[in-house]
Specification:
- The structure is a single chain.
- The chain has 138 residues and is α+β, with helices and mostly antiparallel strands.
- The chain folds into 2 domains: 81 residues, Arc Repressor Mutant, subunit A (Orthogonal Bundle), CATH 1.10.10; 45 residues, no CATH class.
- Helices cover 33% and strands 20% of the residues.
- The protein contains 4 helices and 6 strands; from the N terminus they run ααβααβββββ.
- α1 packs across α2 and α3 packs across α4.
- It is globular.
Length: 138
């Protein structure tokens, strides 16, 4: 079975064999003009609703992690047990709305330079990403 070459290539470059389910994951993630944030469970629901096909949580998890490792997606850890993924891989920051469990982009120009005064021997800072957690103001 042949698939869209751009998705086949993206999967192969990520070390994955193109399958019907993985192609559908690619279509949902990369066939949109708008970037978006998602959890693994969110993505499973989107795929099943849009494509009307069953896809296992493990397939989505493994595919997303392969894309993240390759740099096609960005992981945004919210806490020790919750991560979101972003199809916008450019350098930017986020608001995390704790009331709605929603991640919102903040443009790089809307955050002043962050100064880190501590260093860790043998390590250098790769990037600084701000996540501002927000709640409804009562």
């Amino acid at each position: 079975m042949t698939y869209d070459p751009k998705y086949e290539n993206k999967l192969r470059e990520s070390g994955l064999r193109p399958t019907k389910q993985r192609i559908k994951i690619c279509e949902v993630l990369f066939n949109s003009t708008e970037t978006f944030h998602f959890t693994i469970k969110d993505l499973v629901k989107i795929i099943e609703n849009q494509a009307n096909i069953k896809v296992s949580l493990a397939t989505v998890y493994n595919t997303v992690h392969a894309f993240n490792k390759k740099g096609y997606l960005k992981e945004i850890p919210i806490n020790s047990s919750q991560s979101y993924y972003d199809t916008n891989i450019s350098h930017h920051h986020h608001f995390f709305d704790e009331d709605e469990n929603k991640l919102i982009d903040i443009d790089q120009n809307d955050v002043d330079e962050v100064m880190i005064k501590k260093t860790i021997p043998g390590k250098k800072i790769k990037s600084i990403e701000v996540i501002a957690k927000i709640v409804t103001d009562n």
